[in-house]
Amino acid sequence: MQQPIFPILSLGFSKLKESKARAEDTFPQFFELPVELRFYVLSFLNETDMCSVAKSSRTLRQMAQENMIWRDLCKQSGWEVPYETVSSLFDFDYKKYFSEKLTISRKGSLNWSLSPKVTGTPITKRFKHTATAFGKYIIFIGGQETDTKRFNEIVYFDTQTQAFFRPIIKGDMPPNFSRHISVLVKGRIFIFGGFDGFGTNFELAIFNPATFTWTNVDRSQIRGEFPAPRTNHAAAAVGNMLYIFGGNNNNSATGQYQVLDDFFGLDTDSLTWTNLSQSTRNSSYPHARSGHSLSTINNKLFLFGGGVWNETDGWVQKSTDIHIFDPSTQLWSQPQCTGKIETSTFVISFSIGNFLFIFGGGSKPKHCVTNDLYILDTLSFTWFSPEFEDKDKPQPRDMGTATAVGQNVYFMGGYAGGAVSYFDKLTVDAKPIFEKNSWVEIAGCGAR
């Protein structure tokens, strides 16, 4: 060879597209190498150079797509994904993972807008309501301002027009309640549990967000083993199955307060409950808890945090653990996560792509509500926390909601010494997460 290859690749590929020269003509020595050596040469490039390589010729574009190159770039960046995770996911795409992790970790990719301008009548202060995404809408149901002041209103927020509105509800009358769950499954919102503050607990209801119709489902229409009414439980859906875990209630026989560790699934097509508490119980099964969260990521349930509270001593146990339920195997697992998270109870959670976001909640070490944001990479099981200026961060709270619609996440209400009416927005400027099938533009993002 008459010229060294590495300096040429490092300096020249970024200019090829501008000059419209053929890479094969500009660097003939490179294309004369055996394929294995070409990949070896490319392994010395960073992500910005690799993006330039992909733009310079069709052949190099194909080479730059190779999974092993991006696997090595992930390792070089300290973003290793366990073999068990890779093997469990069909055709794991290291390039997409690298792009997502790079953009979500980059300073400036997450931006708060505190109290954005809205129209219509905003929601009043409340906590332990629910918020469910339905197309461009966020649908708020119930909640409470005090122990005895609870709401039965259903409020829509149009994320395109930034307008609140309250439709006329048809069918049955929603109860005044809070501490329930609401999950969208195939165009219907399934609601379970909740309490009115005066002694009445609630069971299953269904809300049709397209027709504004509320239905309190009579037990005669439901099959299987019924879960006990409860509050402070968590729920998520995979396919047509709605899953609920834990929470608390008063024992039906003794009337004593109890924290639950039961796990139920509802087939929303046939309205059949199945008690999964014994069939799925293994060494990784979560302990009894309330005030936890449950999220669906890659068709698995991710349970986070919560704890054990009693009327005498308050919180006697707080957890920051992660448990994963895989419906395809009907097994629980508990990954060993790295990194640090210091919030645990009644957190405000949401997920985007492969990332679980945890905001606010009750601090485990400090016994106060927080305004910290933590992110769990659910592929590498690593916690990290983006940095924000204090002036840019929203107010501390727990027991509120966060709902993602596209790249925007809307935070509503919560509790901070009393009910609050905070309404904030977090914009996630992470293009690779939202464009699943396109080549990701990484050039210019090399500085980390």
Tell me what you see in this structure:
The protein has 448 residues and is of the alpha+beta class. Helices cover 18% and strands 35% of the residues. It has ten helices and 30 strands. It has helices at 5-19, 23-26, 28-32, 35-42, 47-56, 58-64, 67-76, 83-88, 94-105, 431-434; strands at residues 110-114, 130-134, 137-141, 154-158, 163-165, 170-171, 178-185, 188-195, 204-208, 213-216, 223-224, 234-238, 241-250, 257-267, 272-275, 293-297, 300-304, 307-310, 314-318, 322-326, 331-333, 343-345, 348-352, 355-359, 362-363, 373-377, 382-384, 401-405, 408-415, 419-428. The chain has a five-stranded mixed β-sheet with strand order 6-10-9-8-7, with no helix packed on it. The protein has a five-stranded mixed β-sheet with strand order 11-15-14-13-12, with no helix packed on it. It has a four-stranded antiparallel β-sheet with strand order 1-30-29-28, with no helix packed on it.
> Roughly what is the average pLDDT, rounded to an integer?
90
Q: Could you describe the largest sheet, including whether it forms a barrel? A: 5 strands, mixed
Helix segment count?
10
- Estimated share of beta-strand residues: 25-35%
In order across it, which strands form the biggest sheet? 6-10-9-8-7
Whole-Å distance between the termini?
A: 35 Å
Runs in which pLDDT lies below 50 for 5 or more consecutive residues are: 1-8, 437-448
The share of residues in helices is 10-25%
Number of beta strands: 30
**Rg result:** 25 Å
Structural class: alpha+beta
Shape: globular
